[in-house]
Specification:
about 240 residues, alpha/beta, Rossmann fold, 6-stranded parallel beta sheet, 3-stranded antiparallel beta sheet, 9 strands, hydrolase, methyl jasmonate esterase activity, MES/HNL, Alpha/beta fold hydrolase
């Protein structure tokens, strides 16, 4: 089957794929979830974390040629990785993620959305280099449809998110354009508005856009269904 690399979003880590990894393995895939620099088990000074550092970490984690799934903010680094070395990526899968355009930063695109539901849910660190999620807003913003215990599990694992990678304009060209892409929209997303997810995929072929009826955390809300959908998508990348 396929090699699949799972890449987390802001403040998260490989831990968020806890239920999806075994589900994909049962379907016969070679699956790996990584911690980007500064997340999970990969400590890194906030001031030194860049978009290019994220992208290189993704490429370094690929053993052969992988379907790369990026959640939320990871849409930017998986795209940057494809621009650096498209030969290592069979397909990019954007899971309720930012699908970037050349010259824009993630911050630019976040502000383009018709609503800003995350503004009340996050706060900057005192040094201004990162941000965290307010514990009082976790359930509403990220996990409102997830099983009991999810918020407690996340609270134990969430980390500071470096701002620099998200404020850096991305440069995308022919290398990125050569890689096949699929988008999975989450229609009950309270972090990235579903209507903006539709805007980002305007003009994409219908067969490359899918939807799940979940929050911003389908890996907890519907891990089995998410794994089945990723499995289906990998058939197009074979």
């Amino acid at each position: 089957m396929s090699e699949i690399l799972l890449v987390h979003g802001s403040c998260h880590g490989a831990w968020c794929w806890r239920d999806v990894v075994p589900a994909l393995e049962r379907l016969g895939h070679d699956v790996r979830a990584i911690d980007l620099p500064g997340h999970g088990t990969t400590p890194w000074p906030l001031a030194d974390i860049t978009l290019d550092l994220y992208a290189q970490a993704i490429l370094d984690a690929i053993e052969t040629r992988a379907v790369v799934v990026g959640h939320s903010m990871a849409g930017f680094p998986i795209s940057a990785a494809a621009e650096i070395d498209p030969t290592k990526i069979a397909r990019l899968v954007y899971l309720c993620a930012y699908a970037p355009r050349d010259g824009a930063s993630l911050v630019d695109m976040r502000m383009e959305a018709p609503r800003q539901p995350l503004l009340e849910a996050i706060e900057k660190t005192p040094d201004g280099l990162g941000f965290t999620f307010r514990e009082t807003h976790l359930a509403k913003a990220l996990y409102h449809d997830c099983p009991e215990g999810t918020v407690d599990y996340a609270r134990q694992n969430l980390c500071v998110q470096a701002i620099k990678p998200q404020a850096t304009p991305i440069r995308l060209g022919k290398a990125y354009q050569s890689v096949p892409k699929t988008y999975i929209r989450c229609d009950d997303d309270q972090a990235i508005p579903p209507e903006y997810q539709r805007t980002m995929t305007g003009g994409w072929p219908a067969e490359d856009v899918h939807a799940l009826p979940t929050s911003h955390s389908p890996f907890f809300a519907m891990p089995g269904e998410l794994a089945q959908l990723i499995d289906q998508i990998t058939q197009d990348a074979a």
